[in-house]
Amino acid sequence: MQFKVSKEFLVQIEDLVQQRDDQQLEALLNDLHHADIAEILQELDFDEATYIFKVLDSDKTAEILLEIDEDLREKILSRLSPKEIAEELDELETNDAADIIAELSKDRKEEVISELQDVEHAKDIVDLLRYDEDTAGGIMHKELVKVNENWNVLTCVKEMRIQAENISRVHSIYVVDDEGRLKGRLSLKDLLTTSTKTQISEVYIRKLNFVKVDDEDVEVARIMQKYDLEAIPVVDELGRLVGRITIDDILDVIEQRDTEDIHKFGGTEGLDLSYTKTSLGELVRKRATWLVILFLGEMLTASAMGYYDVEIQKAVVLALFVPLIISSGGNSGSQAASLIIRAMALKELQLSDWWYVMKKEILSGLLLGTILGIIGFIRIMVWQKTGIYDYGEYWIWIALSVSCSLVAIVLWGTLSGSLIPFVLRRVGLDPATASAPFVATMVDVTGLIIYFSISALFLSGKIL
Question: Tell me, what DSSP letter sits at residue 186?
Fold first, then answer.
């Protein structure tokens, strides 16, 4: 049954804190999952949250530290001594402990590490801090089960029992040689059904997926998604097994990656914290840059309309269709950009596929433009014939101008939206930067030029 924080429950917690009834607090909270306790702390006053944190056992509070948001975690850690922080980190796996230590100042970081009781645990944490947080080394666990290829099954089982004591979940048993180089993995089924005297080298699986410490975390996520893996081993430059990455780590990477891409595609910089935790000043700063760039781009639209001022004065009716024309081009460009950027993120498209995409989008753009062009022509004809609006004696030429412009502009928008991500990738930029507002703004300006050029071709000598 899922736990839900109620107002009545929070009032009860607050009363117990005020009464300093530690025994009742523990009895009320200890049976709850650490994620539920973290949710409760988020709803309480900071002083109340800190008091509860110190009341609970470190094996519970260590996990809570991982669940609460960065702002509250920073405040709670500031109230703890280096020794108290070290006691919390001793309860965590290495990568989680390293993530928390990385948030501390340099001085406190050194003090906390010196207070860690388990020397091997401390060494592993320090080792993880060497890696960039966006790499396989930065998100891997040091805890894993490994056996030597020269052992027999009985020795392997004995060693596994020792190693598994410090691991919450055993996803795989990895096989290494005398130098610690990764050789393969061992199936639990084979281990249980094989004679205890059999050499591991005779039964382990030699073919397996692995990543290197400096591989990007998004590439690790792609590999684990592709091969449906719960965990993947990590090796160093010499091929030695140094850690493993589990599916829960990758879910965090995927969420962060998708959030950044959505922010960029919406025309804003990626937020470092969640929307609710981002300050007003930071929110404005993240959005202002792109808004200014897009505003300057839209100024070109005004310049383009000013260039065709004479034509607009002669045929005011042309201005009626400007919003329809430019929005159709921008929409088609945004659609194409969305499809291509997502396909690139999923590795469905490579740079070499640009010509395939171009041919496909030319046909798509022509068909989509034709559909809108026919609808536009019918709309003008119906309005003219029913008397809703009088476009004059040359209404049919106006309708043809709008229809042909829609075909050309939708085609141009589709091509622009699909090829810009390739250009950005080619110059080493993130394709997600080809945001919908960016594509729409670019197509707006060029769309006006296309529209008035086609209109001049059809209406010259008539109303122009």
Answer: E
